[in-house]
């Protein structure tokens, strides 16, 4: 059920894997937990040549040998000019990260399986534009982005969908190869915004093995209550009550109005869900929460270890969805 | 300010940003090769690049790998067919150019562009196989900047405006210059090629030939390229006294003189009798031979050269690149001076004539002998007189000589230049039993007022004779001086006044020039000056010069510790400069508007009395009191100013209040009269 990216760090068998784990642990310890923001200081920027860098080095060496062989002073000059450029690239690349302020913005919750977008804000204060930065988690990376001189830029890193739960991100990597691509400077970040993944909604009515359509939610409907009425849309009506089907047919907006105002109270019950396993029940409850909210009704949620009293509105819906997401689970550390 | 959000990348590999710049930068880098490569290479490269540009502009994909492989094999084959090899300077460069063109053609991702650009740097370096002029140096800086700009654009991840890109690439080059200079001087230079024989590959250079066949050096005399440049340490000898000796020729086969293969090394003579020596430093263009032209007569020589018994100076290896050497000359003491007789074997060689050669010349000389008896000097004078008097002409375009060159020249054509005269003179002398040899080298040249150096062109090549007189040694005789004294007095240009002789235009530099010609020659002298400096300061730097440079610092480039010290000193001072530059450019606190007003007030008061200016450390109210005591008329505005100044400085104020206070300060400043210059002031009261 869980995507591959959520694997627990298994026991490392090979020597190199152990070494790698040690290195990662050391790095993680060095920059333990940045919280919500971090500054790219000199102590956390690493820099190494890239493959292109080694290629250029090879070319420079051949040029040097040629210069010596032909005792050609102009060839010496150009070779050493390239050495200078290569050397200074180190400085340029390092400076492209140095002093950047990185902070996370709240991660909007998603439903299970939907891609998660991690927004990270970069703030430039040193007065020089930054080019071609990439934010990565594992194999996921943003397109290269720039940060304007004394400005900010929000990078959005899209991550694979996850199962229901609450997650903490693995370390992130902010890197750059600007300007020549011969060196890569990078920094590890451990920004840890909480990532909440709601259950994927599943309509209990469509599952087989359920005990009947209208039985599922226990409706506390009073006798003689008329079915919902449809009336034309008035400005201010909650968008959730718009009857989209009618709109598609007629092109006019209508809203569904509960016939008796706030009168009906709906209890969404764990026990009443027509499924036996936890995740399916949560998914069904999720669907019911959304449906009830869309209808604009007040509803309560009854879980085995938690009860949320009936209320209505987006805040209440989110509250309920949060409760479903956190149901009997600890924060899961993601491993890249 | 938050700009558009970048989305997750999908196909970074197909990002061809920067390819357009690469398609400009690489042809620019390759352009100088057009003159050195077969036209089909140029055509192929242009075609490949134009095709890629068209594909890029129309958004089409690069040709498939199969097509490219076929093309690459064909190109390799063509290169091999053209040069018979794919290695070496010309073939290697051709292959490199073709490969880059194809790499660009097949470019399908960023890596391909980067590789092509890296190879572009290599293309720039290969330019120097063919040309090392300062113009090419400037041009390759531009090419390098373009390649670097393309690399930056490739890695920028967004379009960078061109001016910004140019600034950035320029800055990268500029910042690399100190590294370049330090490494250039400090990197240990080693002698000679690591492999192969690079000289063999280099295209033929002009220089003095090891043989002299009257009529041969005619094309050399049309060659206006520089052969040798000389700077004199102090005294500059007269032009006619400057004979630059290169090769000595004793063996003659009736037509041709060939340079001596004399292996006997002798010690340079110690100080001449009168001790007068000319010290100079010469910069010699590569000749691919070993001779060093030295000023007659050589006395002190460079360490890597030796003096042969015939007074020919040879370097210990061939001169394959431009070199500099310092030497000394003794103008007056000829070789063998004071020796009673010539070595018999050498005497035999210096008298040898092929038995049947020059019968008419021999008959003529026999008459002279009959007239003058044993007087060798008289014989010499007779010969010179003959050249001076008879209808002999000096011309750079003499008729061809066929049968017996000497007789034909002496009695029929009677027209020629230094070679003809030197050769004929030597034959006459030998016929008379006077040991004689031919010396070739340079004579004349043009004194460059700008830069103060003598410039000898290949056209200044000259040939003259040396005759042996017992007790006096090898005495120089220049028969050309008899026929064309102005050639010797003023160098070749001196001949311009002669008949209608078609002398190469560049030689006609005397009187009667139009301003345009004068401007042209002036410009040319400037050009040669710049070239000379470039060549003597940059191109002539070699292991020898490096040793000298290191020795001046008490170091030795063959010792790695010395190299480390030099590198440390070089980069240490560079770091120091960079750090102080950063420190100097650190943001400073700017003077507040109130402080500027205070400064203006102080200046205004100082015009009344200089001593009333505010000292930098003086509190404002103390200063106001001091001025008030000295000049009661100014006391009122000053006291008010001090009050307002301190209030705005120390009291918490809103921006509006602060602006008000500043306005008040300005008004108070205006109330202080502009003082007249102190001299006009009728003695103000002094504090």
Topology:
The complex is a heterodimer of chains A (336) and B (687).
Chain A: H1 15-30, E1 37-39, E2 46-49, H2 51-70, H3 73-97, E3 101-104, E4 110-111, E5 116-123, E6 130-137, E7 140-141, E8 145-147, E9 152-159, E10 165-168, E11 172-176, E12 183-189, E13 194-198, E14 218-219, E15 229-232, H4 244-250, E16 254-257, E17 265-269, H5 278-295, E18 298-303, E19 306-311, H6 314-325, E20 331-333
Parallel strand pairs in A: 4-13, 10-20, 17-18
Antiparallel strand pairs in A: 1-3, 2-12, 3-5, 5-9, 6-7, 6-8, 6-11, 10-13, 11-12, 14-17, 15-16, 18-19
Helix pairs in contact in A: 2-3, 5-6
Chain B: H1 19-30, H2 39-57, H3 65-83, H4 89-105, H5 110-127, H6 134-156, H7 162-186, H8 198-201, E1 211-212, E2 226-232, E3 243-252, E4 257-259, E5 265-266, E6 278-284, E7 294-295, E8 305-308, E9 313-315, E10 323-329, H9 344-351, H10 359-372, H11 376-389, E11 393-394, H12 405-413, E12 415-416, H13 418-431, E13 436-443, E14 446-448, E15 453-457, E16 461-469, E17 473-477, H14 479-483, H15 485-489, H16 515-539, H17 543-552, H18 560-584, H19 593-608, H20 620-630, H21 632-650, H22 655-671
Parallel strand pairs in B: 11-12
Antiparallel strand pairs in B: 1-4, 2-6, 2-15, 3-4, 3-7, 3-13, 5-8, 6-10, 8-9, 13-16, 14-15, 16-17
Helix pairs in contact in B: 1-2, 1-5, 1-6, 2-4, 3-4, 4-5, 5-6, 6-7, 7-18, 10-11, 10-13, 11-13, 12-13, 19-22, 20-21, 21-22
Please give a structural write-up.
The complex is a heterodimer of chains A (336) and B (687). By secondary structure, chain A is α+β, with helices and mostly antiparallel strands. Among the domains of chain A are: 25-50 and 96-198, Immunoglobulin-like, CATH 2.60.40; 204-225 and 260-333, no CATH class. Chain A has six helices and 20 strands. Chain A has helices at 15-30, 51-70, 73-97, 244-250, 278-295, 314-325; strands at 37-39, 46-49, 101-104, 110-111, 116-123, 130-137, 140-141, 145-147, 152-159, 165-168, 172-176, 183-189, 194-198, 218-219, 229-232, 254-257, 265-269, 298-303, 306-311, 331-333. In chain A, the strands form five sheets. In chain A, strands 2, 6, 7, 8, 11 and 12 form a six-stranded antiparallel sheet that branches. A four-stranded antiparallel sheet of chain A has the order 1-3-5-9, with no helix packed on it. In chain A, a hairpin with a 2-residue loop joins strand 18 (298-303) and strand 19 (306-311). The longest helix of chain A has 25 residues, at 73-97. By secondary structure, chain B is of the alpha+beta class. Among the domains of chain B are: 12-186, no CATH class; 543-584; 593-680, no CATH class. Chain B contains 22 helices and 17 strands. In chain B, the strands form four sheets. In chain B, strands 1, 3, 4, 7, 13, 16 and 17 form a seven-stranded antiparallel sheet that branches. In chain B, helix 10 packs across helix 13 and helix 12 (405-413) crosses helix 13 (418-431). Chain B is extended, with a radius of gyration of 38 Å. Chain B starts with 18 loop residues before the first helix and ends in a 16-residue tail after the last helix. The chains are: A alpha+beta (336), B alpha+beta (687). At the A-B interface, helix 2, helix 3, strand 6, strand 7 and strand 9 of A face helix 5, helix 6 and helix 7 of B.
């Amino acid at each position: 059920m869980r995507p591959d990216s959520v694997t627990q760090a298994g026991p490392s068998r090979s020597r190199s894997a152990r070494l790698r784990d040690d290195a990662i642990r050391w790095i993680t310890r060095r920059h333990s937990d940045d919280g919500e923001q971090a500054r790219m200081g000199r102590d956390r920027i690493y820099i190494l040549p890239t493959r292109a860098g080694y290629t250029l080095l090879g070319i420079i060496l051949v040029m040097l040998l040629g210069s010596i062989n032909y005792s050609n002073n102009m060839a010496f000059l150009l070779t050493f000019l390239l050495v200078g450029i290569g050397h200074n690239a180190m400085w340029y690349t390092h400076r492209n990260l140095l002093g950047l302020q990185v902070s996370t913005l709240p991660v909007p919750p998603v439903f299970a399986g939907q891609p998660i977008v991690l927004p990270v804000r970069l703030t430039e204060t040193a007065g020089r534009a930054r080019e071609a930065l990439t934010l990565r988690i594992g194999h996921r990376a943003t397109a290269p982005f720039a940060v304007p001189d004394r400005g900010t830029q929000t990078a959005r890193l899209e991550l694979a969908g996850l199962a229901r739960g609450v997650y903490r991100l693995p370390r992130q990597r902010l890197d750059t190869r600007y300007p020549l691509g011969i060196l890569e400077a990078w920094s590890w970040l451990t920004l840890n915004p909480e990532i909440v993944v709601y259950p994927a909604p599943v309509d209990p009515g469509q599952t087989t093995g359920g005990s009947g359509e209208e039985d599922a939610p226990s409706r506390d409907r009073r006798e003689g209550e008329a079915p919902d009425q449809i009336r034309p849309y008035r400005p201010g009506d909650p968008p959730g009550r718009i009857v989209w089907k009618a709109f598609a047919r007629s092109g006019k907006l209508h809203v569904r109005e509960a016939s008796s105002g706030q009168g009906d109270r709906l209890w969404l019950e764990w026990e009443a869900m027509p499924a036996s396993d936890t995740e399916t029940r949560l998914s069904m409850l999720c669907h019911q929460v959304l449906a009830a909210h869309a209808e604009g009704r007040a509803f309560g949620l009854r879980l085995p270890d938690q009860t949320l009293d009936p209320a209505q509105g987006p805040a209440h819906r989110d509250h309920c969805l949060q409760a479903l997401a956190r149901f009997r689970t600890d924060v899961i550390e993601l491993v890249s | 300010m938050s700009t558009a959000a970048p989305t997750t990348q999908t196909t970074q590999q197909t990002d061809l940003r920067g390819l357009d710049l690469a398609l400009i930068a690489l042809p620019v880098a390759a352009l100088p090769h057009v003159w050195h490569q077969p036209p089909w290479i140029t055509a192929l490269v242009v075609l490949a690049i134009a095709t890629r540009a068209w594909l890029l502009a129309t958004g089409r994909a690069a040709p498939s790998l199969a097509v490219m492989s076929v093309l690459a094999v064909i190109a390799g084959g063509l290169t091999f067919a053209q040069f018979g090899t794919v290695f070496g300077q010309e073939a290697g460069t051709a292959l490199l150019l073709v490969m880059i063109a194809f790499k660009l053609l097949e470019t399908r991702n960023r890596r391909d562009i980067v590789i092509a650009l890296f190879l572009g740097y290599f293309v720039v370096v290969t330019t120097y196989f063919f040309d090392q002029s300062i113009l090419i140096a400037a041009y390759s800086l531009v090419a390098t900047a373009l390649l670097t700009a393309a690399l930056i654009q490739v890695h920028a991840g967004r379009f960078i405006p061109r001016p910004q890109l140019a600034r950035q690439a320029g800055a990268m080059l500029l910042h690399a210059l100190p590294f370049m200079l330090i490494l250039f001087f400090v990197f240990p230079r080693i002698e000679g090629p690591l492999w192969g024989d690079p000289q063999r590959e280099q295209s033929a250079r002009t220089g003095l030939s090891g043989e002299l066949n009257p009529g041969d050096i005619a094309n050399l005399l049309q060659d206006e390229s520089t052969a040798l440049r000389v700077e004199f340490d102090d005294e500059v000898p007269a032009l006619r006294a400057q004979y630059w000796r290169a090769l000595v020729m004793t063996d003659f086969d009736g037509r041709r003189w060939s340079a001596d293969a004399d292996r006997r090394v002798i010690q340079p003579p110690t100080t001449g009798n009168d001790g007068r020596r000319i010290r100079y430093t010469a910069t010699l263009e590569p000749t691919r031979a070993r001779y060093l032209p030295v000023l007659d007569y050589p006395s002190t020589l460079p360490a890597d050269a030796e003096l042969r018994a015939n007074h020919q100076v040879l370097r210990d290896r061939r001169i394959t690149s431009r070199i500099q050497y310092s030497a000394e000359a003794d103008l007056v003491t000829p070789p063998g001076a004071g020796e009673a007789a010539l070595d018999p074997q050498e005497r035999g060689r210096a008298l040898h004539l092929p038995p049947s050669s020059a019968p008419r010349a021999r008959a003529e000389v026999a008459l002279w002998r009959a007239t003058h008896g044993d007087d060798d000097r008289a014989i010499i004078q007779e010969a010179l007189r003959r050249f001076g008097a008879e209808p002999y002409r000096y011309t750079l375009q003499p008729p061809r000589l066929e049968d017996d060159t000497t007789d034909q020249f002496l009695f029929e054509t009677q027209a020629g230049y230094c070679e003809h005269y030197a050769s004929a003179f030597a034959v006459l002398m030998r016929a008379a039993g006077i040991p004689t040899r031919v010396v070739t080298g340079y004579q004349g040249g043009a004194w460059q007022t700008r830069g103060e150096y003598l410039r000898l062109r290949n056209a200044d090549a000259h040939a003259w004779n040396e005759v042996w007189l017992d007790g006096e040694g090898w005495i120089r005789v220049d028969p050309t001086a008899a026929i064309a004294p102005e050639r010797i007095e003023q160098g070749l240009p001196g001949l311009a006044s002669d008949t209608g002789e078609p002398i190469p235009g560049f030689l006609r530099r005397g009187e009667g020039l139009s301003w345009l010609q004068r401007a042209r020659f002036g410009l040319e002298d400037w050009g040669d000056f710049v070239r000379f400096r470039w060549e003597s300061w940059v191109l002539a730097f070699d292991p020898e010069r490096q040793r000298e440079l290191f020795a001046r610092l008490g170091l030795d480039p063959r010792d790695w510790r010395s190299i480390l010290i030099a590198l440390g000193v070089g980069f240490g001072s560079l770091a120091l400069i960079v750090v102080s530059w950063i420190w100097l450019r650190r943001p400073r606190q700017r003077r507040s508007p109130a402080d500027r007003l205070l400064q203006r007030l102080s200046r205004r008061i100082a015009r009344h009395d200089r001593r009333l200016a505010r000292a930098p450390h003086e509190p404002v109210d103390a200063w106001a009191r001091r001025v008030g005591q000295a000049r009661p008329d100014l006391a009122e505005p000053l006291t008010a100013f001090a009050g307002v100044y301190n209030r705005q400085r120390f009291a918490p104020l809103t921006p509006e209040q602060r602006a008000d206070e500043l306005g008040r300060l300005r008004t108070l400043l205006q109330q202080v009269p502009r003082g007249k210059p102190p001299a006009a002031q009728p003695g103000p009261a002094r504090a």
